[in-house]
Specification:
single chain; mainly alpha; 1 helix; Exodeoxyribonuclease VIII
Length: 50
């Protein structure tokens, strides 16, 4: 279960609206969901540094 579960109806409704917006953006070819974290441009975190 996620750590940040919504506690109120308002929080849940806001998350649903944001998720719907993200899905519409993805369908339109825009991958700019606010919840996504940008990937670092350097090495991947699970690869050892050389």
């Amino acid at each position: 279960m996620p750590d940040n579960t919504p506690t109120t109806h308002e929080e849940n409704a806001a998350r649903l609206r944001q998720a719907g917006k993200c899905l519409r953006d993805i369908e339109a070819g825009r991958f700019q969901c606010d919840e996504e974290k940008p990937q670092p441009t350097g090495e991947l975190a699970d690869e050892p540094a050389t």
